[in-house]
Amino acid sequence: MRLSRRTNVDGRPAIAIAAGSLSLSIETRPTLITLALLLLAAALAVVAMTIGRIPLATGDVLAIIFGQGPGGSAEQVVLNVRLPRMLTGLFVGAALGASGAVFQSISRNALGSPDIIGFTTGSATGALAQIVVFGGSGLLVAASAMGGGVITALVVYTLSVKGGSTSSYRLVLIGIGVGAVLTALNGLMLVKGNLDDAIAANLWMAGSLNARTWIHAWPVTIGTLTILPILALLARPLALMEMGDDVARQLGVNVELVRVSAMILAVLLASLATGSAGPVAFVALAAPQLVRRLVGHGQLAIIGSAAMGALLLVLADLVSQLAPLGIVVPIGRMTGLVGGLYLVWLLTRTKSL
């Protein structure tokens, strides 16, 4: 295996890894930024695990995580309460960040995130139906959220196809319309359900990391770690498709196959995130845009967006835990407050809207 420095055709520095006839080019700046985001997200997660009714030192938390803790109640709190909560937060944020990057690339629109287009609303519809109609909980709610997201994506994609291909603006507009219908359906289920189920559904709709257990953490962790590498392989053809479908076809990209494959994987990520923590707004919208501004050159950085999403969600959770006067703000409401301001700023800065 040989390592060497090189410059890509667009002038960006990269590290070339060669092994026999195989070679891989890793761009330096995006890689360093992604690593920095991952380290910062991990550091904030450790800090967040020190906060609670049983305050712990950072060193104690790290010792317990690496199997060198003293045992007792502190170890039980970290391993059974705070660690699954933080893993859920990290991978929910990562899943939303990567999903947002894919949908913004497919739609060629900064507003093309799964929560704006309506796929997250579809996941919420599936979960609410399980809670209100069938009285399910836990894994059943997560599975129903995935099913609702996938069905919504199929409906939106089918309606947006015209002449054998999809249009980015049709995808966004039809997604917004379908999302509006599903929002009304969600409200109807909350009104018509019995009181206890409606209260449980409302709490779930707020989006929260409270009371997350390993049952919530494992599905989103395993699913995200499985899907992210596949999406990373699709990053280059998706970037070529941003120049236009005709250009991408001339460069050898099977446009519709790549679009449908990336869309299915991104919907699965958004559905896994929604099923684990409830609807969490604007992380999928903001993370890819922030990473593009850090990386530069308008690159599609799926892994970087995942790292930024994890950082944003953990940061929002940390801020909600440190809120004054003991106010408990669900994570979905916190990201909604901050994300709404970011959306207004983005609308005023985007010339194409």
TrEMBL record:
Transmembrane ranges, per UniProt, are 32-52, 86-104, 139-159, 171-195, 215-239, 260-287, 299-318, 325-347
For this entry, list what GO says about its biological process. siderophore-iron import into cell
Q: Where in the cell is it found?
A: Cell membrane
Top-level taxon = Bacteria
Q: Which GO terms describe its cellular component?
A: plasma membrane
Q: Which UniProt keywords apply?
A: Cell membrane, Membrane, Transmembrane, Transmembrane helix, Transport
Q: How does it sit in the membrane?
A: Multi-pass membrane protein
- Where does it primarily localize? membrane
Which Pfam families did the record assign? FecCD
| Family indicated by similarity | Belongs to the binding-protein-dependent transport system permease family. FecCD subfamily.
Q: What is this protein called?
A: Ferric enterobactin transport system permease protein FepG
Q: Give the species this sequence originates from.
A: Devosia equisanguinis
